[in-house]
Amino acid sequence: MNPSTRPAQGGLQGDGLPSDGARTARQAVPEASAGTGARPVAAAPGGPAVRDIEQRWRRALADLDSLRRRYDHQMARDQATERCRVVAAWLPVVDNLDLAVAHAGDGGGGVVEGVRAIRDQAVAVLSALGYPRHDEVGVPFDPVTHEAISVECHDGQPPGVVLKVLRPGYGDGDRQLRPASVVVSGEAG
Signal sequence span per UniProt (predicted)? Predict the structure, then answer.
């Protein structure tokens, strides 16, 4: 067959020049640099589908980060609540140790000293957990940290001073397990 009578194949016309369809397809792909013989650059990877997937991926990462922060916050809150519950359950044990030491009086027997040491250790553990003991005498009455059980008039004491602690309080501020039960000085007459 004569090349001039042959039908166009492969995008070439009979004279060896690219047909209009092939020329249009080649012009649609931008050249990397004109005249250097570099290969054409493929279309940039930023189509709508890719952008949508990337946006969903970023949203998923943000959701995961938010979930992680919420979980950490909830875990810390749950630990504090559980610590408070366990410490509150131990308070009667510490109170009973206080009573045992008080009933023993000043008798310095080995058993009494042992019970006193155990009580001091329990109070130190409560303090280390964030619940310090409040059994101060002679301080001004504070309704947040004290619970007035009775009022007594004493000469030489101004009103509103803690005279005696009947039951110590534990904790401070929003971490208070219980207020101290106290006897407060009142006005004479």
Answer: none
For the 132-189 domain, the top CATH level (class) is mainly beta
Structure-token pair, residue 83: 């610590």
| Cβ-contact 168, 134 below 8 angstroms | yes
- Contact yes or no for 176/86 (Cβ under 8 A): no
Specify the 3-state DSSP secondary structure of 116: helix
* pTM of structure: 0.59
Residue 153 and residue 187 in contact, taking contact as beta carbons nearer than 8 Å = yes
| CA distances in angstroms from 109 to 56, 95, 113, 122, listed in the order given | 74, 20, 6, 20
pLDDT tens digits for range 113-172 = 889 899 999 999 999 988 999 999 999 999 999 999 999 987 778 889 999 999 999 998
d(CA 134, CA 145): 8
Partners of residue 9 on adjacent β-strands: 12
Cβ atoms of residues 168 and 136 within 8 Å: no
Q: Which of 180, 91, 98 is nearest to 129 (CA)?
A: 91
Which tokens is 131 given?
């619940």
User: β-pairing, 162-167 with 146-153?
Assistant: unpaired
Q: Indicate the domain borders of the chain.
A: 53-130, 132-189
For residues 36 and 26, is the Cβ–Cβ distance under 8 A?
Answer: no
